[in-house]
Amino acid sequence: MRKWLLAIVAVMALAGSAQAQSIAGQWQGVLQAGRDLRTVIRIAPGDGPALSAVFYSIDQGAQGVSATITLRGSDVTMAIPGLGGAYEGKLSADRNTMTGTWSQGPTKLALTLTRASTDTAWAIPERPAALKPMPADAMPKVETATIKPSEPGRPGKAFTVRGRNLVTINTSVSDLVAMSYGLHARQIIGAPAWVESDKFDLTVQPDIEGMPAEKQLRGLIQQVLADRFKLTFHRDKRELPAYAIVVAKEGQKLTKSSGDPNGLPGLMFRGLGVLPAMNATLDNFADVMQAAVLDRPVINRTALQGRYDFTLTWTPDESQFAGLGVRVPAPSGDPNAPPGLFTAMQEQLGLRLESTKAPVDVLVIDRVEKPSEN
Question: Any residues with CB less than 8 A from the CB of 303 and at least 6 apart, and which?
């Protein structure tokens, strides 16, 4: 069962301050997802009729993503944009029980929540020490780095964190440079062909305990590129075709994240054209779109600050996802298929992609070598 059950941090928009106050407290129940998973929602009043909440799957840990919840009479609806999930339930007459269904894609699971008392409330487990963040001002060095050729013909790629270790799967040197310096592949100039074609799996352990933040991860990859791939370069500026992300005329439709503002963003495709984003800035979103989806650099020109949770769902075309090394299948002709990317961004996020030309930074390769042995 997917780890969308780890935790959900929600900001709830509810009609009626009195109704909102009436469901404040801790709610809990068991989700049967192949095994019993104890679920807790802690609801607290917010500003006016709004509520805030934290949703935990306490048998799987405690990390959060934002959601929106509405209460109309006795009907409770929760949407989790960062996970593509939803909960629909109904309050009992005494407003101490919610009976409903959790759904994510085709999966639907019954979930009944009961208001807990001080005596019956389940305790929330503390986060394991390995998941505590690395000090924000730390500048970690690479303690060990294992580099192996990737499995031939393996599709896709991944950047992830396991404990304090950075792990990449099926990544080229071009991918590593693009990720660590925030570039599109077109912004990397003068590299030999193997920089794009050869794929590697990396496991990098820093010399400081704790989960590294995004800036620290980028620094670790830069060290590996310099030490093991002997990368040297100089910077330049060139005018290139690009896409600019701007706010649509109707205004943005994003959900503010309640996650750790210094924590890692979560942007992991759940299929071609399904991108859940958790605790992500729009710069993070632009980075993923330029690295994986679009054929040119992407610039964030929204001026929107902060972190957001959302799921963007669209039907990709054949020009997209070259960055993941996959081929987009021909359109199915399904009339219920999601719209294309440009329309989906405007309808679902209140953002637009504008085609433009812009002076952008480029990285000119002076030297790069295949990696030294582990």
Answer: 247
* 67 within 8 A of 81, measured Cβ to Cβ: yes
Give the phi and the psi of residue 352 in degrees, each rounded to 5: -125, 150
51-98: pLDDT as tens digits: 667 777 787 665 555 556 667 788 887 766 555 567 788 999 999 999
Mean of pLDDT values over 211-219: 91
Q: Is the dihedral of CA 115, 118, 119, 124 positive or negative?
A: positive
203 forms beta bridges with: 146, 167
Highest mean pLDDT among 32-46, 77-91, 132-146: 132-146
Residue pair 38/55 in contact (Cβ under 8 Å)? The answer is no
148: helix, strand or coil: strand
Question: What are the tokens at 372?
Answer: 């030294």
Dist CA 56 CA 42 (whole Å): 8
Which domains are seen in the chain, by residue range? Answer: 3-115 (2.40.128.120), 131-235+362-367 (no CATH), 238-361 (no CATH)
**What stretches of 73-118 adopt beta strand conformation (E)?**
75-80, 85-91, 97-104, 107-115
Q: Which helix (H) or strand (E) holds 203?
A: strand 200-206
Query: Model pTM?
Result: 0.59
Q: Three-class SS of residue 194?
A: helix
